[in-house]
Amino acid sequence: MARARTTKELAQRIDLNYFKRPTPLKHAKFWLSLGVPLLALLWIVGRGISSDRRIYSSGSLSRAHAVLENECAACHLRQAGGFSAKAADRACLDCHDGPRHHASQIASPLCATCHAEHRGRVPIAAASEDVCATCHATLRNSQPDTRYAARIHSLLDGHPEFAALGQITDLPAGDSPTIKLNHSIHMKPIRRGPNGILVNLECGNCHRATSIEADLTYSDAKYRAAAVSYNVGDEILPVRADSLRGPKPITGRELMAPVKFANACAACHLLTFDKRFDEGVPHDKPEVVHSFLLEKFQQYIAAHPSELRVTPDPTEELGGKLIPPRVRVFTVSEWVTERIGDAEELLWRKTCKQCHTLTISPGGALPQVAHANIKTQWMPHAKFDHDAHRGFSCVNCHAKALTSTEASDILLPGIAICKTCHGPGPGRADARCSECHTYHDWSKRKEVTPKFTLPALRTDQ
Amino acid sequence: MRIDRTHRAWAIATFAVLAASTIVYLLDVLNAPQGPRGGSVVGLLFGIIGFGLMIFAALLGARKRVSTWRLGRAQAWMRGHLWLGLLALPIILFHGGFHFGGTLTRVLMWLLILTVASGCVGAALQHYLPRVMTAEVPLETIYDEIDHVRLLLREEADRRVEALCGNLGFAKSSVEGSRRAGGFTALRPIAAAAAPLRTSAAVSAGASAAVATAPESIRLSQDESAPLRLFYLNEMRLFLERPRKHSHRLAQAATASGTFAGLRAVLPSRAHAALADLEDICEEARQLARQEKLHRWLHGWLLLHIPLSLALILLGAVHAVMALRY
């Protein structure tokens, strides 16, 4: 039989004050509840004594501001006598100027609205596309008469086709060059000279970025060395005055340099003018060419006076009977004028006109060569870096170059080409507005007075 | 605390608040150009609500400590602690936009995650273990008194064995002066009830049973008692002294039963009643060991939960003040 106990017997085993006695579990709970918060408090007090405010930072600073990681007060300006020390625009403006975006903008956001700090080592200058969309998604609301697209949310949502491709009203569309160039012919195998070899040009033979050495395969040393009388304005269309400039100077690898005759054309397009000379005329203004011809023919006739007596080839009558030529004797002046006339007829009517637009005036005056009007910047409100895309074949984007026959054809790729690579999500190139656009109008940039000194930066390290 | 139907209202309210908060958060994500931030209006709102929930959850400790407070029933506080404490985690994640931020905020986030996680583990343990305790430990006693009860069991076993084998020289414990339930003086022995009083409930049920006669004194000869003496001194007493040692064969009910069956075979039948008492004492010792183990599971998580939550409240307050400043 099992042992028997009463309720009272069982109850008598229990000490009525048992709850007052500490057990190991209660002990541990008490000391841990005291110790852990105390440790936390000591940590906070310790940081406070060492004046280390970094623990209150809500995240690492951006790459550009990493050097200020210990300098909270650089941005968090404390009001005199106040408790608050919020980051203020004037702290940003101590180091950076932030020119306005447009003169017509109706509101200027705070610096931190676009450039949020404490988000880790990110490029702080690259604002989110959503920031731009706060205005550009509803631009019509603030600027009813704007000529720009008014509902742009992102590159993929609402961004219009490039203005240069002629789909925006009120903006000059297309290209207006005076140079005649058939890209299609130049992209096919072509014969170099009348009896020369077949060559297959590549884009890089003619086109290169501004700061990159030219490919001299089809250059001519004489023309490259020659000084020319025309200036940049005769060749290149000036950049529009309302173009936005980037914050940093361009490296020269972003945009393509205008194609130079001396570098890319001279090897094939000879400017020969007379069978008596192997060399060609200078690639220069008609006045210079004329002077060159005058000098050359004068020198030539002085060395070859026998040529003043000109015996033309015999001609035939209809019946086949030869008519003896009439010998003609020129004075030097007449001979030179005659030769220059022939040469200029060849140059102005054929050689030069093959590429240039010439206005030939009656009465023997020299022709006017139209300015080349070569565009170097197609998107005045955006930046494009060819260098960043150097890994891709040119015709990947400029496919129209293979079929273009007129220089006025716009070979700028459409925005759809950009969207094949640029877009949201992993595995795609960045599609933020700042990839191509700049917000601040850096042409109105003002210099700031330096604020920091190196020892000050070192104090908390 | 069991999580049963009485929690339904709290659970529904919690999920409703969570759903509403999620909608507000998603709207904020869509409308905030730089993404959600703790310093935005919505972010601050989430922060205030989240910290308020944490404060409320922490007040449960105060409510328990000052039981005279008449601020709602303890069970309502417990349910609120459980559900609103759980809600604090997503609200604070919304507050930070799922970013852990800098040093202090990262510490706070991990403290919150660990506190909520340990609370969830604790809630699950408190939901299941009481049933396990009821099923497996019918002789459950007050946890703090287990060591004392274990000493009494050993003395009881000593008396039983000495009654059969003669004096074995066991020291008697000194009478404690502590105030014990049931009065200072022990009543005269009470006769065994018709049914064995093995459980507290049964004891209560049979408390009014008739007074029984004292157990009959049976003394075995030296030869007869030798197996029992050896068993008790070498095994059972060691087990009663250290019942947590799992390798002991009396620590397992099956092996213990076999051991006592073997003893019954070698001891005369007049000793079998005392042997049954010893087996009963072993069973109670096993149950107390099991109760200790379950109790540690049932309350051990608090060693993590409470200190971390206190540190969380303290650092949360620091964060709130400094965030307002910066």
Task: Please describe what this structure looks like.
The complex is a heterodimer of chains A (461) and B (326). With 461 residues, chain A is mainly α. Chain A is built from 17 helices and 8 strands. In chain A, a hairpin with an 8-residue loop joins strand 7 (358-359) and strand 8 (368-369). The mean pLDDT of chain A is 85. With 326 residues, chain B is mainly α. Chain B has helices at residues 8-31, 41-65, 74-95, 103-136, 146-165, 200-205, 222-241, 253-266, 272-300, 302-325. Chain B is built from 10 helices and no strands. Classes of the chains: A mainly alpha (461), B mainly alpha (326). At the A-B interface, helix 1, helix 2 and helix 6 of A face helix 4, helix 5, helix 6, helix 9 and helix 10 of B.
Can I get a quick summary?
Chain A is mostly helical and 461 residues long. Chain A is built from 17 helices and 8 strands.
Largest interface: A-B, 58 and 70 residues
Q: Which geometry of chain A do the CA atoms define? A: elongated
**Major sheet of chain B:** none
Mean pLDDT of chain A: 85
Low-pLDDT runs of 5+ residues of chain B are 184-214
CA-CA gap between termini of chain A = 80 Å
**How many strands appear in the DSSP assignment of chain A?**
8
Order of helices and strands of chain A: HHHHHHHHEEHHHHHEEEEHEEHHH
What is the alpha-carbon Rg of chain B in Å? 29 Å
Percent helix of chain A: 25-40%
User: Helicity range of the residues of chain B?
Assistant: 55-70%
The Cα radius of gyration of chain A reads 39 Å
Describe the largest sheet of chain A. 2 strands, antiparallel
Overall number of strands of chain B:
0
Structural class of chain A: mainly alpha
Low-confidence stretches of chain A: none
Q: What is the N-to-C order of secondary-structure elements of chain B (H for helix, E for strand)? A: HHHHHHHHHH
Number of helices of chain B: 10
Q: In oligomeric terms, what are we looking at?
A: heterodimer
Shape of chain B: rod-shaped
